[in-house]
Amino acid sequence: MARRDDPPTRAHGEQLAAEWVTFRDLLVAGRSADAIAFADRIAAESGDPLRVAQALIEKVAGLLNQGGAARPAPLLDRIAELLRQAGHHPRLSGEYHVLAAYAAFADGSMSTAVSNLVQAERVLRGMTEANQAAVSTWHDMSVTYSAMGFHAKAVDAMRAGRRVCVAAGIAEANCACLETLVRSAVARDHHGMSEDCVRELWEVVTFGRAAEPDLTVSDRTYLRYAAARLAAFGHRPAGGDPLPGGTTPDSPDRSFSQVVYLTEVCEAIAENRPDDALRLLGEPAASGSWLGEAEPHRLRSIAMSRTGDHAGAVQAERAMLRVITRDDGTLRDRYIDSVNARLDQDRLRQIAQEHADAAMSDPLTGLPNRRRITAFAAELAARGADAAVGLIDLDGFKAVNDTHGHSSGDLVLQRIAGLLAQSVRGQDLPARFGGDEFMVLLPETGLAEAREVGGRITAAVVGEDWEALVPGTPVGMSMGWAALPAGGDLDAVVRAADEELYREKRALRPA
């Protein structure tokens, strides 16, 4: 019997592989516009969900490489739907989540980015493919972790990709991830660990020198930067051997352009032309985040020291420190968010165990569903207990889906579920009613006490950092309450709660 993640036919698999190679060759050469055109052609001509999903994944990669303003959220939603149609395909699912993570990071949504990377890693750990395409997916995960500042995780992903290289019998240079290694090295320098930076850059140069025939254009770009950065520090090989260099691509992709430009800055410093380096650093092309926002400030400090402007060098160092202090604070916030998410999930698991029945659970949020609400109300009626029923409707949720896509919308719903689990009492039933509506049933609770619980829920939702999860699309909620007498008509009570909810919405609308 064929596995669900195997291509249905050998010919189909060979077609996917051949198209993937074309995409890879275009993207690593910095020809994203050509890759996007090729993807559009496949999407227009093919009805095969896997072919179209792969093509659109590579199109998103091209858009991100170009650094343009186009939001890939609608494309990511379409890819997710195509992958659902095609069935389980770990490599493409993993690549989808990696790109969704990078898109969220570029959009300033760190929580969404981290969530997608966690999902990508879970999928890829179960991948059975051992080929260049599988290696490339681990490579992309590595550089995405690296761009977000998670350097240890980035190196772990690189090592996983290199293990696949060994299993597939291909050169480890196919997962060189020199972008990951160079970024890690310069980050050490930014944190005052210059000796560690020099050591790591020498490791990049040593590996790159041995593997250069097998390196992609992208890896050669970062290899040249490693060599130029060492030369700017005054480090050159013993015996007069030249550092690896060569040409860098003439590409419109912003993923190359800043690195190429800062390479010229480093080379000017190494050649004792600090004034030229400072002039180059004053150009817009020197700014960007591909090597970290702190790197231009660090190079400016080195160049100013060479001119004898030590006061200016100190100012540049202070600017660099402001950037890395801000970024380190952001990383700490991300870890705090992940701890909070784990606490929410523990409470959700407890709720799921208390109401264990797959037919009565919502698969997205883990909360009880409408069937469980009905059953719970019947249990209350059987023991003669009344209850308060609260109906919750999210405000601003459509804007989340329209702006960031349905995968981000799903994360919002999951986060709301976690906040509900935090806010209600042990005997209460939080549930997903449907769409962006939720419900809470509070046994043996009057409406005055119920509104106090509702106040906690509202405060938790309003106080959540939605800007970190879905930037520019704040999420709020409206809530309506009604009393459910023992054995009362649940549907009628829900209608009454719904009427109060919409009275609240109308009251909040501007006149």
Automatic annotation (TrEMBL):
CDD domains per the UniProt record, alphabetical: GGDEF
Q: Which GO biological process annotations does it have?
A: cell adhesion involved in single-species biofilm formation; negative regulation of bacterial-type flagellum-dependent cell motility
Q: Name one GO molecular function term.
A: diguanylate cyclase activity
Q: What InterPro entries does its record include?
A: Diguanylate_Cyclase, GGDEF_dom, Nucleotide_cyclase, Rev_trsase/Diguanyl_cyclase
Which Pfam family, an example, fits this chain? GGDEF
This entry carries the following GO cellular component terms, namely: plasma membrane
Any idea where the GGDEF domain is? 385-511
Name-wise, this protein is: Diguanylate cyclase
